[in-house]
Design a protein that fits this description.
It catalyses: 3-dehydroquinate = 3-dehydroshikimate + H2O. Pathway: Metabolic intermediate biosynthesis; chorismate biosynthesis; chorismate from D-erythrose 4-phosphate and phosphoenolpyruvate: step 3/7. This is 3-dehydroquinate dehydratase. Helix content is about 40%, strand content about 20%. It is α/β, with parallel strands linked by helices and about 150 residues long. The chain has a single domain, classed as Dehydroquinase, class II (Rossmann fold, 3-Layer(aba) Sandwich). The protein has a five-stranded parallel sheet, sandwiched between helices.
């Protein structure tokens, strides 16, 4: 069974309460439950991790390398736009990385248009709300076929 790691970044524990216009009312627990359900359908194990601490995110990425996960999905939130520490941790991985955003970051504030992860990610999915996560899981699985 393939193992995927879903990394949720800063402030994602507030989904359902935070800016419903951009992120809807779905909670992080609901997103993770949907990922688990799709994972079972696709015969993929999905582990989710969320933190508001950049160093903890880097340490979890290091652990993913040690654990030999097959792919990483990441919605790093605001860290996407400036965290070279997380980018460097992700660059250690030799597996497909799929960047996910619920909102269309390219249609928002100019600082959100740039991703420091873009050049090391297999691809980016954004703008489809919580469905972005399910699309990301499917994309990661497809990327493994090419990997």
């Amino acid at each position: 069974m393939k193992k995927m790691l879903m990394l949720h970044g800063i402030n994602h524990n507030m989904f359902g309460k935070r800016d419903p216009k951009q992120y809807g009312t779905v909670t992080l627990a609901e997103i993770d439950a949907r990922l688990q359900a799709l994972g079972r359908e696709l015969d993929v194990e999905v582990e989710s991790f969320q933190t508001n601490h950049e160093g903890e995110m880097c340490e979890r990425i290091h652990q993913a390398y040690a654990d030999g996960v097959d792919a990483v999905l990441i919605n790093a939130g605001a860290w996407t736009h400036y965290s070279y520490g997380i980018r460097d941790a992700l660059a250690i991985l030799t597996v497909p990385i799929v960047e996910i955003h619920m909102s269309n970051i390219h249609a928002r504030e100019p600082f959100r248009h740039h991703s420091v992860f873009a050049e090391i990610a297999k691809g980016q999915i954004c703008g489809f709300g919580s469905e972005s996560y399910l699309l990301g899981l499917r994309a990661a699985l497809a990327a493994l076929a090419d990997h």
